[in-house]
Every structure is written in C-alpha cells, then in structure tokens.
Design goal:
Blueprint lengths: L37 E3 L6 E3 L3 E4 L5 E4 L2 E4 L7 E7 L2 E5 L4 E5 L3 E3 L3 H11 L4 H13 L3 H14 L4 H14 L2 H14 L4 H13 L3 H14 L4 H13 L3 H14 L4 H14 L2 H14 L4 H13 L3 H14 L4 H13 L8 H14 L5 H13 L3 H14 L7 H12 L9
Antiparallel strand pairs: 1-2, 3-6, 3-9, 4-5, 6-7, 7-8
Helix pairs in contact: 1-2, 2-3, 2-4, 3-4, 4-5, 4-6, 5-6, 6-7, 6-8, 7-8, 8-9, 8-10, 9-10, 10-11, 10-12, 11-12, 12-13, 13-14, 14-15, 14-16, 15-16, 16-17, 17-18
C-alpha cells in the first residue's frame, strides 16, 4: 500500500588586529534549529528529534519525494531531520532530500557502531567499510579510516570510491602527493566522477597549486552543478587568489542551493570581510551563528568583524563564545590573547589573562609559530613584563621569514617594547 506522505519542502593584517582565518573543513552538514516531535531510530531505543543528525542504515534505502524514489548510492551522507510525521522522517542534506521510515536511519553518533556490527557479520561488505571510513574521517580518526580504505583496495584495487575517499583522507593527513596519486587513478578509471575532481582540487589547493585546483573545481561543478561543497571549497581558492568577487559569487551559489547551511554564510562573510564589506559580513556571521551555534569559527570571525566595526564589547563576547566551543584551538586562544593585550579601550584589556591564553597557544604551536610569539610578547608588555616581551619578540623575528608581511609591524613593536611601552591595536 502506498503511503500518502506530506509534501516535500520546497583583511586585514595582525598589526590592525588579527590575521585572516582560513577554513579547510572537509565534511559539511546542514544544521537545522527547528523544534518538533521525536521518533525512534533503527535500534528502537534512540529517540530522534527534528534537527538531529542521522545517516541511513545502508545504500539500499531510498528517499521518497511524492511518488518519486531517490536512490542514495554508495556515498556516505549525513542528513538532518527536517520534519517528523508519524513513523516518517523528512531528511535534508546539501545533496538530496526526501522521506524515509524512522527504522531506516541511525543517529550519526552511532553510525560507527552500526557499521562495525555489519562488518562483523560480513567483513568483505565493501559499502559498509566505505561508509565506516567516511564516519572515521569525519571524526578525524585518520589511521583507521585509511586502514578501512586500504583494506577495500587490497581486494578491489580499481574501486573508484575507495580511491577517491583515501585521497581525501591522505589530504587531511597532509600527504598531498600520495593523495593526488590516488585521485589521479580514480579519475583515470572514472573520468565522470565529480567527487574525485573535488578531492583532487582540495589536495592541489593544499599544495598551493591554485590554478590546477581551480580547473578541478570547474570540472567537478560541470559534472555536478549542485555540489555545495565544491562551491565553498572553490571560494576558498579564489580568496587565496584575491579573486574576492568570484569567491563571493561561489558563496552566493552555495547559499542559493543550501539556504540553511551555516558554512555557506560563514565563507561569504570571510570574503566580504576581506573585501571591506563589514556590515554585510556582520549580517552573514550573525546568520551563521544562528544556524550553527556550535561553530567556533563563526564566533571567531564574528569577533574580528565586531572589532573592525569598533564594537569592542561585542568582539570580546564573541571571542568568549569561540573559546567555550574551542578551548584548545590555537587560533582562538591567540585571538583572545591579542584582544585582551592590545584593544584600545582599557576596560577590555587584561594583561595577565592575555599572557595565559598566549602561553597556551604557544604550547600548542610547540614554540614555533611567530604569530603566536608576537602575541605573547604583546601580552607580556601589557602585563608590564617588558624584558620578557623583548626576548619573546626577538625570538619571533628569528622565525618570521624576511618577506612575511607581518614582519615590519613586528619590528616596530620591538622598538616600542624597548621604550617600555605596550602596543595598542586600532581598527
């Protein structure tokens, strides 16, 4: 009997304040924030509410939109639950949308266990190993993800999906040449596979082969014009090339395709910030944190833009939010330390706390990041420890390359500290 289902739903430099924040997030998901009822997942025990992140139980599941069945294919995809109607869930990703029964989904946090149980029954089930590798990649468990993919390729050396995904894993690990080797093989075997071009573009982007990366992005989008991730990643490349209008155009396309994707607004905000369109950047960042209140990167960039607009209280509040979400992130710690050490209004400065955050960032950087050392020297100066500030700035200058655009301003701060004066940053 056919069930009648509800209708488907339709720059600035650090001398001014902080460096630009670059993003390289490989896995995207739509973040929904809509209240609603709950259903139960395939295990019968886990309640699923509107807004939950889920995966399908397997590639044999089809999404339904009206009377149309939408096959999901071999690629692992995370979905967000948009609506619940009795035992049916309306799922949305940036690639597909449709209805499934609640016993055909698994909460994302239980996906690895679900797939492991399947593999214990049949270790050679390729789709389950491929999906588990994608889950492990999303969790940054790169050795296990690579092991799963290598296991597939040992049996099936021409499996294009495994080659492409292993190329992505190797890119995240920083082994770019090996990644490109895998992706070259995948493209030779399946020249019409858009994911292989997208992942090779990411590897080439990481190697600063920006023109080649742009070519791969163009081919990926020719093959799949609705790929939100491809638009967002290409936008980053175009920012690196100072093609800000093109970067904004790519973000616009992503927003049109996925209007509730927080990352799309975040990427557009970063490009607009670099272009000097601060009010528009602020609006985009407010939308990004509304859609994804767990995004430390969005709050971090919101703090930067608020500082540039001389909203120092707002800048501080957003930095606090970023720190709560990412208390061990080097860039977030460095940002807060610089803010507390150098902001023009005295009521927001706190040299002691600035030194604490900067030392944490320096420890994470293993004492090798000149930007962090620069921040620590400014914090020490604000705390009245000018001899230590001078020593730290001297060390930072040893690490700064001669052609680094930050170096001239760092040299000026060195002279300032010699005069036993703290540094003040002003937008």
């Amino acid at each position: 009997m056919l069930l009648q289902m509800p209708p488907a739903e339709s720059h600035y430099r650090k001398s001014s304040m902080f460096k630009n924040i670059r993003l390289m997030t490989p896995i995207l998901g739509l973040i929904w924030s809509i209240a609603g009822s709950a259903a139960f997942a395939a295990d019968g025990d886990t309640a699923i509410a509107v807004g939950a992140s889920v995966s399908l139980t397997g590639p044999d599941v089809t999404l339904r939109s009206g009377n149309r069945a939408i096959p999901v294919g071999r690629e692992f995809v995370k979905y967000q639950v948009r609506r619940i109607a009795n035992d049916w869930l309306y799922l949305v990703s940036d690639r597909a949308a449709g209805w499934v029964r609640n016993d055909q989904v698994v909460p994302v946090e239980r996906s690895e266990g679900h797939l492991t149980a399947i593999l214990e029954r049949d270790p050679n089930l390729t789709w389950a190993r491929l999906w588990r590798a994608a889950v492990l990649l999303d969790r940054k468990d790169l050795p296990k993800a690579q092991a799963d993919l290598s296991s597939i390729l040992a049996r099936e050396p021409t499996d294009v999906s495994a080659l492409a995904l292993r190329g992505r894993v190797l890119t995240v690990k920083g082994d770019f040449d090996a990644a490109i080797t895998d992706l070259d093989k995948a493209i030779a075997l399946a020249p019409s596979n858009p994911r292989a071009y997208l992942y090779r573009a990411a590897a080439r982007q990481a190697k600063k082969q920006l023109e080649k990366a742009d070519e791969d992005f163009a081919e990926a989008l020719r093959l799949d014009p609705n790929d939100v991730e491809a638009y967002l990643m290409r936008g980053i490349v175009r920012r690196d090339q100072d093609r800000l209008d093109d970067a904004i155009a790519d973000s616009n396309a992503a927003v049109r395709l996925a209007p509730r994707n927080a990352r799309a607004f975040l990427e557009r905000a970063i490009a607009r910030k670099e272009k000097g369109q601060l009010d528009w950047a602020l609006a985009d960042l407010n939308e990004a944190v509304n859609l994804d209140p767990e995004s430390a990167q969005a709050f971090l960039n919101l703090s930067i833009v608020r500082f540039l607009l001389r909203d120092f209280a707002g800048a501080y509040d957003s930095a606090e939010s970023a720190l709560k979400l990412a208390p061990a992130d080097k860039e977030t710690l460095n940002h807060m330390a610089w803010l507390l050490a150098t902001v023009p209004e005295a009521k927001f400065r706190d040299g002691r706390r600035a030194v604490g955050y900067a030392r944490q960032a320096d420890q994470i950087a293993e004492g090798k990041d000149p930007d962090v050392m620069d921040t620590l020297s400014a914090a020490l100066a604000e705390d009245g420890k000018f001899d230590e500030a001078l020593a730290m700035m001297t060390r930072a200058l040893e690490f700064y390359p001669k052609d680094n655009p930050e170096r001239p301003e760092a040299e000026k701060r060195l002279e300032l500290f010699k005069s036993r004066k703290a540094f003040r940053s002003d937008p």
